[in-house]
Amino acid sequence: MGTDGLYAEKTTKSAQLHLEASKWIPGGVTANIKYFDPHPIVMKSASGAYLTDVDHNQYIDYNLCYGALIMGHGHPRVTTAIQEQLAQMGTTIFGTPHQLETEMARVLVDLYPGIETVRFCNSGLESTLLAIRLATAWTGRKKLAKFEGHYHGGYDQVLISVNPSLRNPEDPPAPQLDSRGIPDYYAENTIVLPFNDLEQTAAILKKYRNEIAAVMMEPIQGGYIPPDLSFLRGLRELTQQYRILLIFDEVKTGFRVGLSGAQGRYGVTPDITALGKVLGGGFPVGAVGGKKEIMEMCSPSGGADILTPGSLRPSPGYTNILFHSGTYNGHPTALSAGLATIQALQEPGAYHQLEEHTRKLRSGIEEILDRYGVAGQTVGVGSIFNMVMTDHPVHQVQDVLRSDVVMRKKLDFSLINEGIYMKPLNRFSLSVAHTPDVIMETLERFENGVKKVSKKQVITHGRNQ
Hints:
Layout: H1 3-10, H2 12-21, E1 43-47, E2 50-53, E3 58-61, H3 64-67, H4 76-89, H5 99-111, E4 117-121, H6 124-139, E5 143-147, H7 184-188, E6 190-193, H8 198-207, E7 212-217, H9 229-241, E8 245-249, H10 261-266, E9 272-275, E10 286-290, H11 292-295, H12 332-345, H13 350-371, E11 377-381, E12 384-388, H14 397-401, H15 405-417, E13 420-421, E14 428-429, H16 436-453, E15 459-460, E16 463-464
Parallel strand pairs: 3-13, 5-6, 5-7, 7-8, 8-9
Antiparallel strand pairs: 1-2, 2-3, 4-10, 9-10, 11-12, 12-14, 15-16
Helix pairs in contact: 1-15, 4-12, 8-9, 13-16, 15-16
């Protein structure tokens, strides 16, 4: 039986429940990213590094809610913090200021070089949205520059060239809309840059230097393709030269590649930082931080609040307000879970151990691929990596597009059948729950999965495998 047939056989109840969900939910999922053919897996429980689906299959989880669960599922430290917050405050949320907001803000200012003051929101999407609004207001310019292959959320302004077409490396990238329903305005006012190509990026920025409000980027593309340090430093110099704000979208990399994110790891400081995922300890959260004078634009001091009748408006048709609000911003439960997570990661040796386990897993994966004659490599930084089926260097999304995506998808389904879960074609994330025993178990399952898609016969101890 092929990998597709075995997958269907092992997940019959998931298929039934997905069909039922499709009657009431478009596509049967509440977010497009949760879907994959022929149907996604419906989970029913989780603990530590493991997931269990409705068909009673158990998986070692390397999706971890797309990297958000760096402590693993149901970590006692996080669940205890949530219970204590609810017991002490007596409510899920006040709708007023509370002390956890200030506590988390101080932590972020202390950890992130690019953050002097901070605002909270409810997702990484919201954080990048506010970052762009701040940059546009600060500079008075309307164009945004973003990098090909970088994802910043599911809204009009940034759903451009996330999944681009193959192009000639000599040609600069052009804006490509990633969704229906996006006004032409955004394609006309979005400049697309090539990641890790300083020469081409410099030429584009020079051309539009007086029109671009900000360059927004994932400092590590997709959370796993690292920047060339000379590229990152060169980009910082160019943006400062042209008075363009540099925004680091650290939603994926924040706390994943170190306590201070990519900016701490590489020593390059942005003007504005967007955070999410790990920051919430498994709850919806976002944060935007930056230079104090930039962040102060969204302060409501002096009556600058559009939801309060009579707010300051110097003249008809003009506003001096930069509005930012949200009923659930700074949610106490999310911040208590996030603080517990950060405190655990601050313990001596926590990151070293997490990265060492990641290194051992990556090394084992590459050794198995090589032994079975499957072209592929792991690409990543810190506790995130991806598996790219090519022997060529991977510096940007174009290199991923040129890899053997068909083999990768085939292998992913084989791994799911063996009990290793990640969404097909997605990156791997590790947690503190991925202990050496879990890594060893993963590599055993990984080898079984590779055997089923490899045509090569490996001789071990005198026997064919």
